[in-house]
Amino acid sequence: MNRREFIGWVGVGSLASSLPVVIAACSSETKSQVTTTPPRADGFQVVGTVADLEKNGQLLNGETAAGKVLIVKYPNNTSQIIAVNPTCTHKGCVVGWNQDQSSFVCPCHGSKFASDGKVTNGPAEKPLSTYTAKVEDKEVLVKIK
């Protein structure tokens, strides 16, 4: 084995041995920081706390029976909350809430969705899935359909 082959094998070995560390690091960062309980008999599931919603202005929880759920305060009535599946119906990017525009905006291709999930600006053609949400005992709950 010459020096070039040896260095190549060392490089491959280094990459292969660091792969589990990279996977573990990515997995822990992408998990929701919110502890989620199973759905109750009435179909509602705790997705976070009112304190977290107040602190961050929104809650993103990826560990519900329906998958990802994004909760924000209703733009015209901050005592109400909105819950949507934040996966853009165009190409699957995660939308975010834009308070100034009172809409969900996709960072990938610019699609915009109204607070009720309906498309207001393409290229997306289908609305976001919405959920019934409420506050109960300082917890934010979403009804999983």
Automatic annotation (TrEMBL):
Protein name: Rieske (2Fe-2S) iron-sulfur domain protein
InterPro entries named among the record's database cross-references: Rieske_2Fe-2S, Rieske_2Fe-2S_sf, Rieske_Fe-S_prot, Rieske_Fe-S_prot_C
Pfam families: Rieske
Gene Ontology CC terms, in alphabetical order: membrane
PROSITE patterns: PROKAR_LIPOPROTEIN, RIESKE
Coiled-coil stretches noted in the UniProt entry, renumbered to this chain: none
A Gene Ontology molecular function term of the record: oxidoreductase activity, acting on paired donors, with incorporation or reduction of molecular oxygen
Lineage of the organism: Bacteria, Bacillati, Cyanobacteriota, Cyanophyceae, Nostocales
Organism listed in the record: Fischerella thermalis JSC-11
PANTHER family: CYTOCHROME B-C1 COMPLEX SUBUNIT RIESKE, MITOCHONDRIAL
Domain Rieske: 45-142
Superkingdom per UniProt: Bacteria
This protein's UniProt keywords: 2Fe-2S, Disulfide bond, Iron, Iron-sulfur, Metal-binding, Thylakoid
Cofactor(s) this protein requires: [2Fe-2S] cluster
Keyword Disulfide bond applies: yes
